[in-house]
Design a protein that fits this description.
Number of helices: 18
Largest sheet: 2 strands, antiparallel
Strand order of the largest sheet: 1-2
Shape: elongated
Structural class: mainly alpha
Distance between the termini: 6 Å
Oligomer: single chain
Order of helices and strands: EHHHHHHHHEHHHHHHHHHH
């Protein structure tokens, strides 16, 4: 565990933070000793140790066990003094509305001072609160310790596996409803698309305008050639124009050429104007087209519903496949050797 001593220099509560570090060490030592004592004298493991190593167990019972009770009494006295000190400071600073609020707020500190087995367990809460406070203030950093790195890795694995199973089960249920012809596709149009018509229609109109402008820019040079060719074919197939050519026998070719130029020029000019107007933002005609497209897409239609159902099923299947990817395998298994190299 890394202790950032420089953080203590800028803290107003540096004295209490140092006291927390001392308590962190003493409470950890006290709880570990109590745990070892309970295992040796009040568990099946202790019975096995006594059977195979009776000398060791008798030595511990006759010497260390009695010392534990003595040192635990000293430590309990230290906890009481520390509690009274913090209580007095809280009264002096008026931390709480009433002077007697402190023992109720820090009830686990008060009960942890009672030297009885059930209350000694509350010292673990005190230990957790101290670690949390020191971690939050940046005095200690457990994230860089090797046990924390390994535990965090396995925690991520468990959470990912559980969340993946839950998400896949939910998506399976949605797919079953869609296959059974549930109201999901109709609700998608009624509850999702139609309420956002004022947003979708302008976006669709802008998309149509940009598409029209982009397509026209690409084919602007080809358009006159195409229109001239189209006019020539139309005039050649027109019965009225053939009658006019027979009436104007001598001037027919020149009339035909002039008419082709005039008509093709007018068409090019009109088409250029129309497409340029369509490419401008806010064009009323494009907005009407977008409105019509939106209305058609949101109206009940068997073919459209079937296609939308297949699209939704395929999209949900892709999501399921992505969810089932075990990212923790890609990151690699927890490396305890690497974790142990994390600087303390």
């Amino acid at each position: 565990m890394k202790i950032r001593w420089q953080v203590l220099k800028g803290q107003k509560e540096a004295g209490f933070l140092l006291l927390d570090l001392v308590l962190l060490f003493l409470i950890s030592l006290n709880l570990l000793w109590l745990l070892a004592d309970a295992i040796l004298l009040n568990s099946g493991i202790g019975v096995l140790i006594g059977r195979h190593f009776p000398t060791f167990l008798n030595h511990y019972r006759n010497n260390w066990h009695n010392d534990l009770l003595v040192y635990d009494s000293y430590f309990t006295l230290f906890l009481i003094v520390e509690l009274l000190l913090r209580w007095g400071v809280a009264i002096w600073r008026r931390t709480y509305y009433r002077w007697f609020f402190y023992p109720f707020v820090r009830w686990y500190d008060v009960l942890g001072c009672i030297p009885l087995p059930p209350f000694r367990a509350l010292r673990l809460l005190r230990l957790v609160s101290i670690v949390y406070r020191l971690q939050k203030l940046g005095v200690i950093d457990l994230s860089e310790s090797s046990p924390f790195v390994v535990l965090r890795k396995y925690y991520r694995i468990v959470i990912e596996e559980l969340s993946d199973r839950i998400v896949v089960n939910v998506l399976d249920g949605v797919q079953r409803e869609i296959r059974d012809g549930g109201p999901l596709t109709h609700r998608l149009a009624d509850d999702v698309l139609k309420p956002h018509r004022d947003v979708i229609v302008p976006w669709l109109a802008e998309l149509l305008a940009e598409t029209s402008e982009h397509a026209y820019d690409q084919h602007r040079e080809r358009l006159p050639v195409y229109l001239e060719s189209a006019v020539r074919r139309a005039m050649a197939q027109s019965p009225e124009f053939r009658k006019l050519k027979r009436r104007l026998l001598f001037a027919g070719p020149s009339v035909e050429e002039e008419l082709q130029k005039i008509v093709s020029g007018l068409l090019v000019q009109l088409t250029d104007q129309v497409l340029t107007d369509l490419g401008k933002p806010g064009n009323v005609a494009v907005t009407d087209v977008a409105n019509a497209l939106f209305s058609t897409a949101t109206e009940p239609n068997a073919e459209l519903d079937r296609a939308l159902r297949h699209i939704l099923l395929d999209a949900l299947e892709l999501v399921k496949n992505q969810v089932q990817v075990q990212h923790w395998k890609a990151d690699g298994p927890p490396d305890t050797a690497t974790a142990a190299k994390v600087p303390d």
